[in-house]
Amino acid sequence: MIKRTFAIILFLVACNMKGSTFAQTPSPITLRNCFEKALEVSERVAIQESQIRAAEAKYGQALAAILPNVHFIATEFLQDDSAQQLGAGQIGTTLTRFSTPTAKLNAKQPLFNGLREYYALSVVHSQKRQNKAEWENAKRKLFVDVANAFYTVIQLEKDLELAKAITKTLKRRLKESITRMDLGKARASEKMNTESELAIAEAAASETEGGLAAAKEVLAFFIGPYNAPLLDDVEIPSAPKEEDFVLKSDENRPDIVAAKEAAFSSRQKLKIEKGAFFPTINAEANYYAYRVGFQKDIKWDALFTLDFSIFEGGKTRAKIQEAKILLKQAELELDEKRRNANLEIKKAYEAFTHGQKQSEAFKIAETKGEENYRVSLKDYQLGLINNLELLEVLRSLQNVRRTYNRVWLQTKMDYLNLKAKAGKPLL
What we know:
Blueprint: H1 2-24, H2 31-41, H3 43-64, E1 69-78, H4 89-96, E2 99-112, H5 116-182, H6 188-223, H7 254-274, E3 280-290, E4 300-307, H8 315-381, H9 387-421
Antiparallel strand pairs: 1-2, 2-3, 3-4
C-alpha cells in the first residue's frame, strides 16, 4: 500500500513538472509578431508619429489666426501732475491727472486678409496628411527590413539543419568505408575522401552557425531580445498577375501621397503670397469695466482698419516668384516619384516571378537528386560505383537542397517587398 501511494505521488510530481516545462515553452514568433514588436521598438516610426502630433499642434496655431482674440486688459497711466492747475475744466483735469487707471475687455477680429489665413490653414492640414503618409511609408520600409531579417534567420536555420544532416550521413559513410576497407572491399583512399568531405561539412556547419548568430542579432535589433522559435506562416500566390500590382492609383503608395500633399501645400503657399496684394481689414472693440475722468461713462468703442499696401520695394513680387519656383519643384518631384514607383514595382514583380520559376526548377532538381542518391547508394552496395562517385552524388544533392532553400525563401522576401512597393496591405 505504501509503495503504491509513493508511486502515485511520483507520477503526479512528474506530470506537474512536465506541465510546468510545457507552460514555459515560448510560443513560435510569426512575421506579424515580429513586425508588431518592431513598431514598438523602432525610433524611426516613433519620430514620424511625433511629426503628426506636431502638425496637429500647428493646425491649432493656424486656426487661431482666423478666430477672434479676446483679452482683459488693466492699465494705470502715471504722469507728472505739476501742471494740473493749468488745465481747464474736466477734460484738462483728466488729461493732466497723476494716475489714469483703466480696465477693459478687448476683442480683435481680422475680417479680410486676402484669404491668407484660410490658405495657411489648408497648408497645415495638408502637412498633417503628408506626415501621416510619411509615417505609413516609414512603417513599410521597416516591414521590409524586418522581413529580410526574419527570413535570413529562417534560411540559415534550414542551412544548418542541412549541414548537420549531411554531416550525419557522411559519418555513416565513413563508418561503412572503414568496415569495407577492413574486409578488403574498399581502398584506403575512399576512407580518406570521406574524411575530407566530413571535415568540409563540419566547417560549413560551423560557418553557418556563426552566420545564424549574427542574423539573430540583426533581428533582435529590430524587435528586441527574443528566445522563441520563428514560424513562417506567409503564403504566396502561385501565379499573380502584373496588373494586380502595377500602380493604378495615387492612393496606393504612401510616398506618392506625401509628394502630392507637398505639391498641394506649395500651391496654397503661392496663394498666400499673392494674397499680400489685397488689402487687410480688421475690427477691434473694447468694453470698459472701469474708467476715470470725462470718459468714465463711455462703456465701449470700436475701431475698423483698412490697410492697403502700395509699395514695399518689390518684396511681395519676389516672394511670389520664389513660391512659384518651389511649386514647380514640388510638381517635378511628384512626377519623379510616380515614375520611380512604377519602375520599382515592375522590378519587384520581375524579381518575384523569376524567383518563383527558379524555385519550381530547383524543387524538381531536389526530387531528382534524392532519387539519384538512392539509386547510386544501391549501385555502390552492388559494387557498380565507387565511394568517390557516391560522394559526388551526395555533394550535388546537398548543393541543390541549399540552393532551393535559399531561392524559395528569397522568393518570399521578394513577394513581401512587391506588396510593400505596390502599396498593398502588408499582411
